[in-house]
Amino acid sequence: MTTAVPQEILDALTDVDMPRLPPEAGPSEAVRLAGIEVPVYRAGCVVVGSGAAGLRAAVEMKRRGDDVVIMSQSAWGGTSACSGSDKQTLHTANTADQGDNYKAMARAIRSGGAMDEDTAYVEAVGSSRMMASLQFLGLPLPQDPLGGTLRYQTDHDEVGRATSCGPRTSRLMVKVLAEEAIRLAVPFYNQTTAVKILTEGEGADRHVVGILAMRAGGRTEENPLGIALYASDVIVLAAGGPGELYRDSVYPNGCFGSLGLALEAGVELVNLTESQFGIGTRREGFPWNLSGTYVQAIPHIYSVDADGVEHHFLAQYYRSTQELASNVFRKGYQWPFHATRMLDFGSSLVDLAISSETAAGRRVFMDFNRNPLPVPGDLPFSLERLDEDVRLYLGKAGADEEMPIDRLKHMNPLAIELYRRYKIDIAAEPLAFAVNNQHMNGGIMVDTWGRSNLAGCYAVGEAAGTHGVTRPGGAALNAGQVFGTRAAEHISASGRAKRASTDDMSGIAEAGIADLLSALRAESPLTVKSIRAEVQARMSDKAGIICNRQSVAQALIEARKLNADIRAEGVAYDRTAEAIRGMQWRQMALASEAVLSALDYFIRKGGGSRGARAICDAEGESLPLASAGPLEEYRFRREREADRDEQIVVRLEGDKIRLSRRANRTFDESARSFFERDWPAWLTGRIYDLTADD
Ligand SMILES: Cc1cc2nc3c(=O)[nH]c(=O)nc-3n(C[C@H](O)[C@H](O)[C@H](O)COP(=O)(O)OP(=O)(O)OC[C@H]3O[C@@H](n4cnc5c(N)ncnc54)[C@H](O)[C@@H]3O)c2cc1C
């Protein structure tokens, strides 16, 4: 950025106000079930979640004349509204200049493997439409004077398909979509948490009939837990990712997602082994990814032990000051940890070094007022002594200031501003950070219309398991927009959400409520606090970036035991809000067992290191090296090529997690559309494959 940007412009991109929600529509009736007076809300479709993905689905449905409502645990909570990074991005299929085509983009999206090829193409081909429609709704994506979108390169992106409206891109997306939802008068139920999906029928005939929710605001003497019944034959799960699963997490607080909710309803999940981890500040303070310019400014990274002694730990890993500094820079666009990047003194050695410092009880900091200290015996840091790619980038950006803070100010003043908003002045003091969990690539298994295996249940956004092993930065938001639209198109074409449900499902709802009540027991020794502490510590310590067969197997045994205890003893609570959290933690404990089951299965079957995790093994073929010598402790298994072609499917049967594998769906790149031949399928709605739902 060479022109100084006035403060008020920076402010507007950082402090994004959300619209006011309209008054809530009341219930259509109340029924007495399991001794409780339950309000009943009726809809054609209930969207669970008001992040960017859920709002997109709701808006697209409403525009097509469907009877849709949104329920949300927290209207402007969740990842889209409350997190982001300075590289919050969207995919931009290019016009001129950097050249691109949808098929190439699809290949890039699925390049890490374990991703359905047709899904990757759907996301690629849908991306331009998503971008254009968001611009139409008012999303301020940056343009050049001739209307081209400004773009840049991000993680797993060789072309430069990313764009951004600054650190709050996803919040701005929520804002424009929410404004549209309000304009279209989509009913909104805020502070409403879905706790149970209600179904009817058996086997292939099983289908959704509604959802039980809990609302602290809906408490009455006759309904002390604020239970509400939403009758609807169609639901869209858009509840985001399971951010609370890990202790070390850069998700905003209170992100639970819907993996446990889905499992309990017999919905199949996929790719649960795949997540993203990387450096950032944790949710205890201000959760934010330290990618992009934060690291491209090349701050000094160091740790402090319990006695307050500082350690220049990266110097034990890299051989020269130039190598150290260049790899810190590369975290800018190689942000997620990737096992293979620990080899050849690559950039993931930075993550490994940081996580082992943290595991040793040291705190790690980034200091923007110091350049990296020299590796002992080597020359001091200099902008002239950097690897060619790094020197060229900083040269092009004109970031030739002496200190990292000034280089950061030059390249991205918003980066400093953003932390100031949360009372952290990175220009004045070092910033504490760690390696954190950031994204769930797996989730509910869906087809190319967002349909799950349960009739009437769709999933979009991070709730859906549409990503493979790696995902280019920005692909999550794009996928949420594309699949939000696709699910809406499909639901609308089916005609099932045109009118509110009139079903009488008292019997099913009553059984569901009885089940909820039996899971919540005031006298249980298992509390929200104890379950959270156990699940989060286990996931961060045993299923983080460094894993091995024994510790994952042991973690799975412990996770199973916790779920058996929860089934036997229930979860304690004393206030309604805690009862809601109790239900969410019960589901999170189940989700954690599901993730560990998939990981254990993957490792036992010989699966190697890919994406988020290094599978350490004394017999492993890959050995990361550090300047001090080989890191035998972190010797890891190489990725097995065959694993790229399939996905692990997880489902709950009774109390047991069941695992299976399926091949990735394919996409024939040579197939071409032919207008006269293919038009009838569009005109008659055959493209929606609706017979599969009959
Ligand atoms: C720090 C960070 C940086 C990121 N950077 C990028 C990036 O640069 N580019 C990118 O593409 N992606 C990025 N991601 C990922 C991306 O932001 C998320 O995948 C995406 O925002 C998810 O959107 P969503 O609509 O699916 O879910 P969310 O935005 O999380 O919304 C979920 C909604 O569901 C509601 N909800 C949850 N459970 C329930 C329930 N039981 N009942 C009712 N409501 C419920 C919540 O209140 C919320 O409204 C980043 C993530 C993080 C954490």
From TrEMBL:
Q: Which InterPro entries match?
A: FAD-dep_OxRdtase_2_FAD-bd (IPR003953), FAD/NAD-bd_sf (IPR036188), SdhA/FrdA/AprA (IPR030664)
Record's signal peptide: none
Which GO biological process annotations does it have?
anaerobic respiration
What is a single molecular function from GO for this protein? Answer: electron transfer activity
Domain called FAD-dependent oxidoreductase 2 FAD-binding: residue spans: 46-477
Keywords attached to this entry:
Flavoprotein, Oxidoreductase
Q: Which GO terms describe its cellular component?
A: plasma membrane
Entry keyword annotation includes Flavoprotein: yes
Q: Does the keyword Membrane apply?
A: no
Q: What is this protein called?
A: Succinate dehydrogenase/fumarate reductase flavoprotein subunit
Record organism: Rhizobium esperanzae
**What lineage does the source organism belong to?**
Bacteria, Pseudomonadati, Pseudomonadota, Alphaproteobacteria, Hyphomicrobiales
